[in-house]
# Entry
Amino acid sequence: MNIYVSNLSFHTSEEDLKAMFAKYGEVSSAKIIMDRETNRSRGFGFVEMPSDENGKEAMQALNGKEVEGRAMSVSVAREKTDRGGSGGGGSFNRGRSDNKRW
# Structure
């Protein structure tokens, strides 16, 4: 079971995250998502547990639990979806059909 954990303290390490969930069963992996530019935690991560039963128990026990002054939000992770588009932002011509710039 892949579990999404958000509202983490920026000081929470992957080892901390793994230890929190290990109380409820085997943890395959624990990953804190880091900002590429600053190399600091983005405040969320993922935990993978091989047993769905243990994963559900951990989610129920840890959702809303306060850690370092922040109430964690724990839920089933959704599959990553393609956002589509070119990623280039808005249209250059601002909705004009004649493609004139001025």
